[in-house]
Amino acid sequence: MAEQVKVKREDEVAVVLLNRPEKFNSFELETIQKFANHLISLAADKEVRSVVISGEGKAFCAGGDLKWMLDYPHGPHVAIHELAARYHQAILEIRRMNKPVIAAINGIAAGGGFSLALACDFRVMARSAILRQAYTSSGLTLDGGGTFTLPRLVGLARALEIVAFDKPISSEQALAWGLATKVVDDSQVLEEAIKMAHELSSISLNAFGLSKKLLTDSFDTSFETQLEREREGISGCAAHPEGKDGIQAFTEKRKPAFKS
Question: Same domain, yes or no, for 139 and 64?
Fold first, then answer.
């Protein structure tokens, strides 16, 4: 039986591939648990400095496996409830990780695949790839943090439009709306995402991780609280070896060595 989730290493970059191409890389309980477990391991792996997520075959991820849900012994609502718990664990690992996480969207990203892509820090899309929220057309609400990330990326009015009409979003439209970081030819999407990951591997992960958390939390805090968190963050960075070297490197007009 084929491995449902594959992990490849390219020096400091880890590539995580959903491997159910015959099911458009949709996930059921076992697949999403393996996916979450890999992310937990990679988050703690000091040799990994950036992560790329993609799918084998023609799809990035079609979300939850609806046929599996319908066949679940206790009913689809129980299947979704259990599946969401594991799926949300994976999403939290992506958002908590102090390493850059890049989605290489090689094909359709729909439902849970749509929310998964939005949870990543950056999104490289194949020119022919399509984003589609797909939940509401099946009588469901978004999960996977989609209701959190979508309005923050495109604004509330456009998020409601995407939810209400559920029209496919082309790569060009995704780029214009801020849902894609970069659009490339289909054959180059994984290569370009890995290239971006290597470039990001040289940054200060301590500063990136704290900045990622500050930006994410900023929507739920007062201005005064955010200022205090920024003060704590920047002083903490200055005390960190990477911050110390970064400041010293600036004064010496050299490039800092953040890779430890």
Answer: yes
